[in-house]
Amino acid sequence: MPFDINISNKSKLIIIYGFLLLVVAAVFFQTRGPSALKNEYSWTNKLNSASSGPLTENIVNSALANVLDPELQLNILELGLIYKMSIIDRMVNIVMTLTTPTCPFSQTFIEGIKDELLKIPELETINLKLTFDPPWTINRLAPEIRDQLLGLGQAPDHIHNE
Q: Of the four listed, 19, 30, 39, 125, which is most buried by Cβ atoms within 10 Å?
């Protein structure tokens, strides 16, 4: 044996229990991570009004600006979570991400988007797709927000990636 280390039985048990704890934690977080989230959501606005005006990007962006990150109090547009948005007649298609695959606010964002967009009378259908390709980076933040957070040292640890 290349390493002749004398480890007591108590130390061996601590190592085994530590390893088992890591396995349980990994399984727990995997079940709460991106694999536990649906990738696609679709909602129909039952309150839509055919007599309302055209659906525009400004109207949708105004609604999305009300969906805030509970930790940073920044909206999902400032955070750069929206990768792509298209409007076809009275339907909006959104492709978005989260800051991390295990983001604890995933359901908060998804429900917030649904709730805010369903308030728009011009909107009939919402299609939301969640992706982690490409992964979110700090460069997705609005530049003034990124500079402010990093300059003040208030950015959470998980957004200090480049």
A: 125
